[in-house]
Write a structure and sequence with these properties.
Elements (H helix, E strand, L loop, with lengths): L5 H12 L15 E5 L7 E7 L2 E12 L10 E8 L13 H15 L11 E3 L3 E13 L4 H15 L1 E3 L1 E5 L5 E5 L6 E3 L7 E8 L2 E4 L3 H6 L2 E7 L5 E7 L6 H31 L12
Parallel strand pairs: 4-6
Antiparallel strand pairs: 1-2, 2-3, 3-6, 5-6, 7-10, 8-9, 11-12, 11-13, 13-14
Length: 289
């Protein structure tokens, strides 16, 4: 977080009221989003996303595990969020643990249903074996709008994930053995069409903005986090901040979030498809910029 003087807060507030923010954007505009997938070699899928000065790296690792008792025919996802002390001095020591747990809780809420991802496709043998997707989120730099950036990076990493196909072999005595394909093209891809993205709407004065900067977050009394699919379906909602929101404002923010999320999903999917179409020809940037 940043500390602003009263004059700076008034300047930001007046700009938002006139639909002209300090960086020239309108209230419903995102900053430039940079997405790159397949940036970590020893993962099942990975992605790095930058929105403004917020930089996030996500790695997905598929490992064999045992299905949960209540969902014997499905695989599942596990989330771990690491807030690097390099992102901001506030994360030094145990400063980032609380925020990391809060983000992980939100991700669990989003994916704790059968509609986001086809979890049955992760089952290898009912009640016995399944794929467990360990999703590791590393926050490299913090420049506002963390939740949106992380949700975009998670979706991109899941899109990039390639899970090896498994064949179950039976011997003469009825024992079962597993054979994993070592062909990189003989794999299972996840359908991420219904994976939602988080849109954070920050209340500033009598209006709300998307993709708030650190300065705008300092002027916001409350924010609404909504998870929306590419079809505009709201799957999860949460309010953060000490201020209050009246019902009329919440409904307005939800409608804005749905509208913005549809555009976000379309742009993200277009960028991912374009990057994949380049194949081996694409130039990998990674951490060199």
């Amino acid at each position: 977080s940043v500390v602003l003087s009263e004059a700076e807060k008034i300047y930001v507030l007046h700009g938002v009221q006139d639909d002209l923010r300090t960086d020239g954007r309108g209230c419903e505009d995102y900053r430039c989003i940079e997405v790159e997938t397949d940036v970590v070699s020893n993962t099942t899928g990975s992605a790095r996303v930058k929105i403004g000065h917020t930089d996030v790296l996500v790695g997905v690792k598929a490992e064999m595990g045992t299905p949960k008792l209540e969902r014997a025919g499905e695989g599942y996802l596990e989330f771990f969020v690491d807030c690097s002390a390099n992102a901001t001095p506030e994360f030094e020591g145990r400063g980032g643990e609380e925020l990391g747990a809060e983000i992980a809780f939100m991700l669990y809420k989003i994916f704790d249903n059968r509609s986001s991802i086809d979890l049955e496709s992760l089952c290898i043998q009912e009640r016995e074996h399944c794929w467990v997707l360990y999703v590791d989120v590393l926050l490299l730099e913090c420049g506002g709008n963390l939740f949106d950036t992380i949700s975009v990076a998670v979706k991109a990493a899941l899109f990039n994930a390639r899970i090896p196909k498994v064949r179950i072999l039976e011997d003469d005595e009825g024992g079962k053995d597993f054979e994993l394909s070592d062909d990189p093209y003989d794999c299972v891809r996840l359908n991420v069409v219904n994976v939602p993205c988080i849109v954070t709407l920050s209340r500033i004065g009598h209006r709300h903005v998307v993709d708030a900067t650190l300065q705008e977050e300092a002027c916001s009394v409350a924010s609404l986090l909504i998870a929306v699919t590419s079809k505009g379906i709201l799957t999860c909602m949460r309010k953060i901040g000490k201020g209050s929101l009246d019902p009329e404002s919440i409904f307005e923010m939800i409608e804005t979030g749905k509208r913005v999320a549809k555009s976000l999903h379309t742009s993200l999917q277009s960028a991912l498809n374009q990057e994949e179409s380049l194949g081996k020809k694409r130039q990998k940037i990674g951490f060199l910029r």
